[in-house]
Design goal:
Blueprint: E1 4-8, H1 16-24, E2 29-33, E3 49-52, H2 66-78, E4 83-86, H3 88-96, E5 101-116, H4 120-126, E6 131-142, E7 149-154, E8 161-164, E9 168-171, H5 179-188, H6 190-195, H7 204-208, H8 211-230
Parallel strand pairs: 1-2, 1-3, 3-4, 4-9
Antiparallel strand pairs: 5-6, 5-7, 7-8, 8-9
Helix pairs in contact: 2-3
Length: about 240
Protein backbone atom coordinates (compact mmCIF):
# COMPACT_ATOMS: atom_id res chain seq x y z
CA UNK A 1 0.00 0.00 0.00
CA UNK A 2 1.24 3.50 -0.79
CA UNK A 3 1.94 5.65 2.28
CA UNK A 4 -0.25 8.43 3.57
CA UNK A 5 1.53 11.78 3.16
CA UNK A 6 1.42 13.87 6.34
CA UNK A 7 2.35 17.51 5.78
CA UNK A 8 3.78 19.15 8.92
CA UNK A 9 4.40 22.90 9.02
CA UNK A 10 5.93 23.43 12.48
CA UNK A 11 7.88 21.33 14.99
CA UNK A 12 5.17 21.64 17.66
CA UNK A 13 2.37 20.66 15.29
CA UNK A 14 3.17 17.03 14.69
CA UNK A 15 0.71 14.35 13.58
CA UNK A 16 0.06 13.17 17.15
CA UNK A 17 -2.93 10.88 17.40
CA UNK A 18 -3.31 10.80 13.62
CA UNK A 19 0.05 9.04 13.26
CA UNK A 20 -0.69 6.78 16.24
CA UNK A 21 -3.94 5.75 14.62
CA UNK A 22 -2.29 4.95 11.27
CA UNK A 23 0.34 2.89 13.08
CA UNK A 24 -2.37 0.97 14.95
CA UNK A 25 -3.95 0.08 11.60
CA UNK A 26 -0.59 -0.85 10.03
CA UNK A 27 -1.08 1.90 7.44
CA UNK A 28 2.27 3.29 6.26
CA UNK A 29 2.81 7.04 6.33
CA UNK A 30 5.48 9.58 5.50
CA UNK A 31 5.84 12.85 7.41
CA UNK A 32 6.86 15.68 5.06
CA UNK A 33 8.43 18.47 7.12
CA UNK A 34 7.69 21.72 5.29
CA UNK A 35 9.32 23.57 8.18
CA UNK A 36 12.55 21.72 7.38
CA UNK A 37 12.45 22.78 3.74
CA UNK A 38 11.17 19.51 2.29
CA UNK A 39 9.43 20.17 -1.03
CA UNK A 40 5.76 19.54 -1.68
CA UNK A 41 5.12 16.52 -3.85
CA UNK A 42 3.40 17.23 -7.16
CA UNK A 43 1.61 13.92 -7.76
CA UNK A 44 -1.17 13.05 -5.31
CA UNK A 45 -1.40 9.48 -6.65
CA UNK A 46 2.02 8.81 -5.16
CA UNK A 47 0.11 8.47 -1.87
CA UNK A 48 -2.92 6.60 -0.63
CA UNK A 49 -4.13 9.76 1.12
CA UNK A 50 -2.96 13.20 2.25
CA UNK A 51 -3.07 14.50 5.83
CA UNK A 52 -2.53 18.16 6.69
CA UNK A 53 -1.56 19.26 10.18
CA UNK A 54 -1.87 22.61 11.96
CA UNK A 55 0.58 25.45 12.37
CA UNK A 56 0.96 28.98 13.76
CA UNK A 57 1.08 30.73 10.39
CA UNK A 58 -1.76 31.97 8.19
CA UNK A 59 -2.62 30.40 4.87
CA UNK A 60 -2.67 34.01 3.60
CA UNK A 61 1.05 34.44 4.41
CA UNK A 62 3.55 34.67 1.57
CA UNK A 63 5.20 31.31 2.21
CA UNK A 64 6.78 29.35 -0.65
CA UNK A 65 5.08 26.04 0.15
CA UNK A 66 1.50 27.32 0.29
CA UNK A 67 0.78 27.61 -3.49
CA UNK A 68 2.18 24.16 -4.38
CA UNK A 69 0.42 22.55 -1.42
CA UNK A 70 -2.89 24.16 -2.41
CA UNK A 71 -2.37 22.85 -5.94
CA UNK A 72 -1.67 19.36 -4.59
CA UNK A 73 -4.86 19.47 -2.50
CA UNK A 74 -6.92 20.46 -5.54
CA UNK A 75 -5.43 17.68 -7.66
CA UNK A 76 -5.93 15.14 -4.87
CA UNK A 77 -9.61 15.98 -4.52
CA UNK A 78 -10.07 15.98 -8.30
CA UNK A 79 -8.55 12.47 -8.51
CA UNK A 80 -10.27 11.06 -5.40
CA UNK A 81 -7.15 10.80 -3.25
CA UNK A 82 -8.55 11.36 0.27
CA UNK A 83 -7.49 14.56 2.05
CA UNK A 84 -7.92 15.34 5.74
CA UNK A 85 -7.04 18.69 7.31
CA UNK A 86 -6.56 19.65 10.95
CA UNK A 87 -6.96 23.37 11.81
CA UNK A 88 -4.50 25.11 9.44
CA UNK A 89 -4.86 22.02 7.26
CA UNK A 90 -8.62 22.58 7.07
CA UNK A 91 -8.00 26.23 6.17
CA UNK A 92 -5.63 25.13 3.41
CA UNK A 93 -8.33 22.86 2.01
CA UNK A 94 -10.84 25.71 1.97
CA UNK A 95 -8.39 28.07 0.25
CA UNK A 96 -7.39 25.42 -2.29
CA UNK A 97 -11.05 25.00 -3.24
CA UNK A 98 -11.73 28.72 -3.64
CA UNK A 99 -12.84 29.51 -0.08
CA UNK A 100 -11.68 32.39 2.10
CA UNK A 101 -9.68 32.33 5.33
CA UNK A 102 -10.35 35.36 7.53
CA UNK A 103 -10.31 36.40 11.18
CA UNK A 104 -12.44 34.16 13.35
CA UNK A 105 -15.41 35.78 15.12
CA UNK A 106 -13.47 35.00 18.30
CA UNK A 107 -10.02 33.61 18.94
CA UNK A 108 -10.31 30.13 20.44
CA UNK A 109 -7.80 28.44 22.72
CA UNK A 110 -8.60 25.39 24.83
CA UNK A 111 -11.46 22.94 25.11
CA UNK A 112 -14.81 23.82 23.56
CA UNK A 113 -18.01 22.09 22.52
CA UNK A 114 -18.44 21.27 18.84
CA UNK A 115 -21.94 20.38 17.67
CA UNK A 116 -22.71 18.09 14.76
CA UNK A 117 -24.99 19.35 12.01
CA UNK A 118 -28.03 17.50 10.70
CA UNK A 119 -27.89 15.71 7.37
CA UNK A 120 -26.38 12.77 5.55
CA UNK A 121 -22.93 14.32 5.14
CA UNK A 122 -22.50 14.86 8.89
CA UNK A 123 -23.89 11.42 9.71
CA UNK A 124 -21.44 9.83 7.27
CA UNK A 125 -18.52 11.13 9.35
CA UNK A 126 -19.93 11.30 12.88
CA UNK A 127 -22.62 8.65 12.92
CA UNK A 128 -25.06 9.25 15.80
CA UNK A 129 -22.70 11.62 17.67
CA UNK A 130 -24.39 14.96 18.31
CA UNK A 131 -21.60 16.90 20.03
CA UNK A 132 -18.12 16.48 21.47
CA UNK A 133 -15.46 18.46 23.30
CA UNK A 134 -12.69 19.44 20.88
CA UNK A 135 -9.38 21.22 21.31
CA UNK A 136 -9.03 24.66 19.74
CA UNK A 137 -6.12 26.97 19.03
CA UNK A 138 -6.79 29.42 16.22
CA UNK A 139 -7.58 33.03 15.43
CA UNK A 140 -8.63 32.59 11.80
CA UNK A 141 -11.31 30.46 10.22
CA UNK A 142 -12.36 29.16 6.82
CA UNK A 143 -15.44 29.67 4.71
CA UNK A 144 -17.22 26.63 3.30
CA UNK A 145 -16.00 26.38 -0.32
CA UNK A 146 -18.10 25.43 -3.33
CA UNK A 147 -18.76 21.71 -3.18
CA UNK A 148 -18.27 21.58 0.58
CA UNK A 149 -20.92 20.88 3.23
CA UNK A 150 -20.64 22.16 6.79
CA UNK A 151 -20.90 19.20 9.15
CA UNK A 152 -19.92 20.71 12.53
CA UNK A 153 -20.33 24.07 14.23
CA UNK A 154 -19.48 25.90 17.45
CA UNK A 155 -20.61 28.86 19.53
CA UNK A 156 -17.63 31.11 18.85
CA UNK A 157 -16.63 29.85 15.41
CA UNK A 158 -19.52 28.55 13.27
CA UNK A 159 -17.46 26.65 10.69
CA UNK A 160 -15.84 23.80 12.63
CA UNK A 161 -15.75 21.15 9.89
CA UNK A 162 -16.79 20.57 6.30
CA UNK A 163 -16.64 17.62 3.97
CA UNK A 164 -16.29 17.32 0.22
CA UNK A 165 -17.99 14.17 -0.96
CA UNK A 166 -17.37 11.12 1.19
CA UNK A 167 -13.55 11.09 1.16
CA UNK A 168 -12.38 14.56 2.14
CA UNK A 169 -12.64 16.13 5.60
CA UNK A 170 -11.57 19.60 6.76
CA UNK A 171 -11.61 20.56 10.44
CA UNK A 172 -11.03 23.86 12.20
CA UNK A 173 -10.71 22.09 15.53
CA UNK A 174 -7.96 19.70 16.59
CA UNK A 175 -8.84 16.03 17.11
CA UNK A 176 -5.25 14.79 16.89
CA UNK A 177 -4.21 16.00 20.33
CA UNK A 178 -2.15 13.97 22.79
CA UNK A 179 -1.50 14.87 26.42
CA UNK A 180 2.15 15.86 25.76
CA UNK A 181 1.03 18.08 22.87
CA UNK A 182 -1.53 19.90 25.01
CA UNK A 183 1.11 20.56 27.66
CA UNK A 184 3.73 21.65 25.12
CA UNK A 185 1.35 24.11 23.50
CA UNK A 186 0.43 25.52 26.90
CA UNK A 187 4.14 25.92 27.72
CA UNK A 188 4.96 27.62 24.44
CA UNK A 189 1.76 29.66 24.30
CA UNK A 190 1.57 30.75 27.92
CA UNK A 191 2.03 34.44 27.06
CA UNK A 192 -0.47 34.25 24.21
CA UNK A 193 -3.08 32.77 26.54
CA UNK A 194 -2.47 35.43 29.18
CA UNK A 195 -2.63 38.30 26.68
CA UNK A 196 -5.74 37.18 24.77
CA UNK A 197 -8.96 38.98 25.83
CA UNK A 198 -11.25 36.70 23.81
CA UNK A 199 -14.07 35.01 25.78
CA UNK A 200 -13.19 31.78 23.94
CA UNK A 201 -9.63 31.65 25.29
CA UNK A 202 -9.39 29.37 28.33
CA UNK A 203 -6.74 29.82 30.99
CA UNK A 204 -4.00 27.26 31.34
CA UNK A 205 -5.34 25.75 34.55
CA UNK A 206 -8.68 25.11 32.85
CA UNK A 207 -7.02 23.64 29.74
CA UNK A 208 -4.90 21.22 31.75
CA UNK A 209 -7.60 20.19 34.23
CA UNK A 210 -8.56 16.52 33.71
CA UNK A 211 -6.48 16.57 30.53
CA UNK A 212 -6.01 12.79 30.44
CA UNK A 213 -9.75 12.17 30.45
CA UNK A 214 -10.41 14.93 27.91
CA UNK A 215 -7.78 13.61 25.50
CA UNK A 216 -9.10 10.05 25.92
CA UNK A 217 -12.62 11.18 25.04
CA UNK A 218 -11.33 13.13 22.05
CA UNK A 219 -9.36 10.10 20.89
CA UNK A 220 -12.64 8.17 20.61
CA UNK A 221 -14.04 10.85 18.30
CA UNK A 222 -10.82 10.97 16.28
CA UNK A 223 -10.94 7.21 15.81
CA UNK A 224 -14.46 7.46 14.41
CA UNK A 225 -13.37 10.12 11.90
CA UNK A 226 -10.13 8.36 10.97
CA UNK A 227 -11.94 5.03 10.60
CA UNK A 228 -14.21 6.63 8.03
CA UNK A 229 -11.40 8.49 6.28
CA UNK A 230 -9.16 5.45 5.75
CA UNK A 231 -12.05 3.63 4.05
CA UNK A 232 -11.35 5.80 1.03
CA UNK A 233 -7.58 5.37 0.86
CA UNK A 234 -6.20 4.50 -2.55
CA UNK A 235 -5.12 0.87 -2.35
Amino acid sequence: MKPVAIYQTASADGPGQFARYLTSRAIPYRVIRLDAGIAVETEPRAFSGIGLMGGPMSVNDDLPWIPPLAALIRRAIETDVPVIGHCLGGQLMSKALGGQVTASPAKEIGWATVRIEEGAAAQHWFGDLRAFTAFQWHQETFSIPAGGVRIATGDHCPNQAFSVGTRHLAMQCHVEMTVPTVKRWCDEGEDEIAQSPSPAVRQRASIEADVDAKVAALRTVAKRLYDRWVEGLVR
